[in-house]
Amino acid sequence: MGVDHLQPGEARQIDYHPPMNVALATPMFILAGALFVLFVGRTLIRLYHRRRLREILRTDKQGRFKRRSAISTSLYKHVFHAPLFSIRHSRYLKLGNNIHMGILPLRFEAALLAVYIAINIVFFFVMVDWWKDWDEVIFEFQYSAGSMAVLNLPGLVLAAGRNNPLVPLLGIKFDCFNLMHRWVGRTIIFSALVHMIAAVRMKVFEQGGLAAATLLIWNTKFFICGLVAIFAFTAILFQSLSPVRHAFYEAFLHSHIALAIMAFVGLWYHLEGMSHQNVMLVTVVLWGFDRATRLACVIWRNIGTRCSKATVEMLPGDVARVNVTVARPWRFKAGQYAYLYMPSVGLWTSHPFSVAWTSKDGTSVLDKDATNSSNDSLDRAVGGSQETTVSFLVKGRDGLTSKLVRKAGNSPERTFNAITLAEGPYGGLESLDSYGSVLLVAGGIGITHPIAYLLEIVNGFASRSTAVRRVTLVWVVRSLDHLSWIQPWMVSLFSHPALQGPNVPKQESYFELPELALSIQIYLSNRDSSPEDFSPESPWAISAPTGVAISINTGRPSFRDTLDVEMAHQVGAMAVSVCGPGEMGDDVRQVVRAKQGNKKVDFYEETFSW
Ligand SMILES: Cc1cc2nc3c(=O)[nH]c(=O)nc-3n(C[C@H](O)[C@H](O)[C@H](O)COP(=O)(O)OP(=O)(O)OC[C@H]3O[C@@H](n4cnc5c(N)ncnc54)[C@H](O)[C@@H]3O)c2cc1C
Ligand SMILES: NC(=O)c1ccc[n+]([C@@H]2O[C@H](COP(=O)([O-])OP(=O)(O)OC[C@H]3O[C@@H](n4cnc5c(N)ncnc54)[C@H](OP(=O)(O)O)[C@@H]3O)[C@@H](O)[C@H]2O)c1
Questions:
Q1: Residue 494 in 3-state DSSP?
Q2: Which of 83, 201, 235, 517 is paired with 562 by a 20 to 30 Å CA distance?
Q3: Is there an atom of ligand 2 within 6 Å of 585 CB?
Q4: In sequence order, what are the beta bridge partners of 4?
Q5: Which of 476, 480, 482 is nearest to 528 (CA)?
């Protein structure tokens, strides 16, 4: 087929590069086609959910949405939610106790990766005219490999960006793009190394020996720039391995960016005068777009008539509650997260945290008309007076988070104030509004995710914009003290009029009994903590309306039994959402897959696994 537009009979010139054969970009076109198919699929699912919600709100009936077709059940069970092998997905693979080997992708993700790598490899080979002279074959092979490396660069940068437009368009989470970023990167490095080896082999042949070839390479800007790029890419290959990445995250991130810049600069000059330089330009523009959007977002959200600031309050269990008063709020959605910058603790570094709660002027947002929040940005822009506080729970781990928790613990009254910038919001791709039943499962600090959904559901129920009629929260914690993490928010939630109705056992006809059935099951996994220590005088117990069932149990829950009970009382379609340690995510996934039958139960996992 040929890799470039060398005319028949035209001799190849050493320093001239004919334009690339566009067919070399075929893998990219195939990939773009696959993304388009995913976009269409995702749009259809979203439209279906919207139609289902509209119909439920119109007819007050959701019994028919309980059922799922056999094909859809199989796809859910064996394709979309299946781990690569049997159970393991989010639970980290570890060597010994501390060496972090990453996670196993889902079956669907692994299939996408395999197809992506396969089409790249196929095009390596089919573009080369294998029946030509050996020299020409080697030239075409190195050209093909080099082109593959360059053509994959825009995808590499896009997948790494926080503002990747494909995330909202395809509804595919950043975690998945992060996985793609790593594999696209490995493909690029592999192609670049093949390109270099073939190019050196060619020069040795042309110059009549290794010494002459080496002399030429070290005295030619074109080759030196290529070598700089190869060196930087190879360094990235090693510094981004899971054990290094997880053990020294900040050092990894900073050196990763420095090496990427070095690779791009080297490549830019290596590709001077070639059509491939345009691909580099696209890559740099995509990167610049992400960085500029991040900067603009930080400035817009946090710098108004005053700067965003936070109160950090120490809580039991090495957790800090961070209440950020943002200069310009956004329209909050459950499942969103933001990157927090706290210069006095972490200089310029930023870390992602789920938005757990929002309130205005110290009053919970849910006490106000839910629709007001859409006008918040405008209010602030025109000088409106309401202050919006966005709350996060941060668990002390290694770097910034452990410094933050230590600083709060050492401060007078275990509280301090600091300038804090929030970049976001990101995420919040999944709405649970069209489900009749919702089971929220959390482990430890993973409660930040479901608490935001509880707020959204109660708000939605009050404004009659959600189909949810039955919500169960299962939260596994190590100590009763940890209930204080969300205590003020639960007290606020319990006082909502939507939860004041009688707790009648709910069967089929939900809208004839239009109450929201909320139950909360706390599990104390550490045997040192006992349900008997739960005081009837505690704010949780005092403020809970009679209709809300709260149970405190010992040990870990049986997710199988919990799901059995929930499915027995299922109203319409059911969503099961889990946020907690990877092991918990895997267990809940396994149970939901095992229960897939003719009842519709969808699974959503939010587990920190980058
Ligand atoms: C979407 C999302 C929501 C989260 N929500 C919460 C929450 O509500 N509460 C909570 O306590 N924790 C949450 N986390 C986890 C939290 O981000 C990490 O615990 C924190 O970044 C660790 O930082 P560190 O400085 O203490 O540790 P480091 O030593 O810097 O890192 C420890 C590990 O945290 C991860 N990490 C660190 N920085 C980043 C970063 N900028 N981007 C991605 N991963 C990073 C890396 O895997 C690293 O190995 C969430 C994570 C994600 C991805
Ligand atoms: N949006 C997000 O992605 C997001 C937001 C916040 C937090 N997170 C993640 O959530 C996780 C929770 O953090 P953590 O440090 O607070 O967790 P943790 O302390 O390790 O565990 C919390 C609780 O979960 C229990 N648990 C663990 N595995 C379980 C299983 N398979 N079945 C039942 N219970 C189980 C633990 O029980 P034992 O005592 O028996 O171990 C413990 O009580 C972290 O990985 C964090 O990064 C993610």
A1: helix
A2: 83
A3: no
A4: 20
A5: 480
Rounded to the nearest 10°, the torsion over CA 500, 505, 508, 512 is: -40
Encoding tokens for residue 415? 């509280």
CATH among 1.20.1540, 1.20.120, 2.60.40, 3.30.70 for 22-59+96-295 = 1.20.120
What is the distance between the alpha carbons of residues 488 and 363, in angstroms, rounded to a whole number? Answer: 11
Half-sphere exposure of 78 (CA within 13 A, CB side): 7
What is the token pair recorded at 221?
């800007």
437-605 architecture in CATH?
Answer: 3-Layer(aba) Sandwich (3.40)
For ligand 1, is residue 485 a contact (CB within 6 Å)?
no
**Rounded CA separation 237/373 (Å):** 45
Q: How far apart are the CA of 479 and the centre of ligand 2, in A?
A: 13
How far, in Å, is the centroid of ligand 2 from the Cα of 475? 10
On the 0-12 / 13-18 / 19+ scale of CB atoms within 10 A, 185 is buried
Residue 579 pLDDT class (50, 70, 90 cuts): very high
pLDDT in tens, 26-62: 888 888 999 999 999 999 999 999 999 999 999 988 9
Q: Which residue's entry shows tokens 């959204």?
A: 456
Amino acid identity, position 173: K
pTM of the full predicted structure? 0.90
Tokens, residue 212: 């002459």
Query: Is there an atom of ligand 2 within 6 Å of 402 CB?
Result: no
**Domains in the chain: boundaries:** 22-59+96-295, 303-427, 437-605
CATH label, 303-427, candidates 1.10.630.10, 2.10.220.10, 3.40.30.10, 2.40.30.10: 2.40.30.10
**Whether residue 554 has its Cβ less than 6 Å from ligand 2:** no
The torsion of the CA quartet 121, 125, 126, 131, rounded to 10 degrees, works out to -170
CB count within 10 Å of CB 524 equals 23
Q: Which residue has a Cα nearest atom 44 of ligand 1? A: 610
582 CA distance to ligand 2 middle (Å): 7
Q: What is the pLDDT of residue 424?
A: 87
Output DSSP code: residue 491.
H
Q: Which two tokens stand for residue 42?
A: 């995702």
In DSSP terms, which residues pair with 340 in a beta bridge?
351, 422
d(CA 290, CA 423): 12
Which amino acid makes up residue 33?
G
